[in-house]
Amino acid sequence: MRPIEKPLNIFEKISFFIILNFSKFMVFCFVGSTAALIYLTVFNFFRFWAGISFFISLVLAISIPTGYNFFMNRNITFRARGHSIKRQLPRYFIVYGLSISVNIITALTIEAILGIGVLQENIAAIGGIALSIPISFFGSLFWAFKKENA
Fold this sequence. Notes:
Blueprint: H1 10-49, H2 54-77, H3 85-114, H4 118-144
Helix pairs in contact: 1-2, 1-4, 2-3, 3-4
C-alpha cells in the first residue's frame, strides 16, 4: 500500500523553487555583477571625468551593459538560445525597461536624500541596481527567457 501524499504547503513550494533555481540565480548574479562593474565604470567616467549630469550619466551607464546582459543571460544563465530570439528580445526589453525605471527612480531618490558627491552618487547608483535585481531576475526567468513549451 502506497502512503498518501499530501500536497506541498507554500513554504515547501518556495523551498523547492529556491533549490531548483539557486544555480540560475547565482549565475544571474555573476553576470549582473560583471554588468554592474561595466555600469559603475561607465557612470563614473561620464559623471566625474566627462562632467555630464547625474541623470544622463545614469542613462548612459545603464544602456551600455544591457546588450551584454541579454546575450549572457540568454546563452548562459537561462540557456534559452535554442528558442525564438524574436519572442525573447521584446520581452527582455520590457522586463529591463521596468527594471531600469526602478533603477533610475531609486537612484534619483537616494541622490536627493544623500546629496551630491562621489560617494553619495555611487551609493545612489548601487541602490538602484540592488532594487532592480529581483525585477530583472524573475522577469527573465518567468517571462523573457521562459521556454516556449514550459
